[in-house]
Amino acid sequence: MKTTDAIPVTLLSGFLGAGKTSYLNRRLLPNLPPDSLILVNDFGSINIDAELIEYRDERIMQLSNGCICCTLGGSLAERLAELLRQPVLPASLLIEASGIANPTRIADLVRLSPRLQLQELVCLVDASQAERHSRDPRVREVWQQQIDAATHLVINRLTTDLALPPALAALLSGHPASIEKEAGAAISPAPATQVPRFTRTGAWQSFSLNLDQPIDGDRLAALFAEYADVLVRAKGIVQRQGREGTEVVQLTGGRLSWSSALRRPAQGQLVCIGTGGPRLNRLAERLRELARVEAGAQTALA
């Protein structure tokens, strides 16, 4: 039985690159009660999403180097237990799940605690990637799980007429969730020469890099394009050669984008997520080689 003072919980889900952190900053943070707590999971040893949330650092708990969809025990349960042991409890809890998390399992864990009350399960869906996700055997299952579990769906990056893509319209037919539609800049599909051939082999895997020196943006983009068959998502906070300040770099749907970073970490950070195997391992090696080359060049110039 839930207690009358149970902490209200909002769970935010959505596939890699759907815009969860942007939506959190723009729509959820302004409505959070004072002294709320945010728990951010990222599939990698470096938590880029936590760096991008515009909230007080001491009110953000990070859960990195894993996927909280995989088990009802482990790190998430430990974090929630730690939270409930605090002498002063948060007014509310907002959980941003990793992009490959099954939110049903996270919701079940929240429901097990009498001191937590799941209020809403929000799922971000990138309409511009719906046809791609529905055909990709690596993505389709978890993408559908996230949509099926939602109590509130935010369909973003729609065209101005807000019409749903056929694959998404079929999936949402009869869905009981409330639906919010947002027009916006779509992430166009990658050119035909860069569309990867999808396979059913390989589990999700991530790797992370710390970048001490500015990176060559063109060489980074070329590596991402070369390994598009295994690389699904990349994100980071880096400095490009020849540019002032740090930038947020994101690879979503085969497209690379750059934007100004509000925060400047002590060193550049990059996380890549894809299907595990020799190809992804080779990409990690080549990115590390690129980082070493850049560091060596900077040392030679000093």
Automatic annotation (TrEMBL):
Q: What does this protein do?
A: Zinc chaperone that directly transfers zinc cofactor to target proteins, thereby activating them. Zinc is transferred from the CXCC motif in the GTPase domain to the zinc binding site in target proteins in a process requiring GTP hydrolysis.
Q: What name appears for this protein in its UniProt entry?
A: G3E family GTPase
User: SMART domains this protein is in?
Assistant: CobW_C
Listed under catalytic activity are: GTP + H2O = GDP + phosphate + H(+)
> Which keywords accompany this UniProt record?
Chaperone, Hydrolase, Nucleotide-binding
Tell me the protein family, please: Belongs to the SIMIBI class G3E GTPase family. ZNG1 subfamily.
Specify the superkingdom. Answer: Bacteria
What GO cellular-component annotations does this UniProt entry give?
Answer: cytoplasm
Task: Give the organism the record lists.
Answer: Oceanimonas baumannii
Coiled coil region boundaries: none
What the entry lists under InterPro entries is as follows: CobW-likC_sf, CobW-like_C, CobW/HypB/UreG_nucleotide-bd, P-loop_NTPase, Zinc-reg_GTPase_activator
Q: Where is the CobW C-terminal domain?
A: 204-291
Keyword Nucleotide-binding appears in the UniProt entry: yes
Instruction: Provide the GO MF annotations for this entry.
Output: hydrolase activity; nucleotide binding
Pfam families found in the cross-reference section: cobW, CobW_C
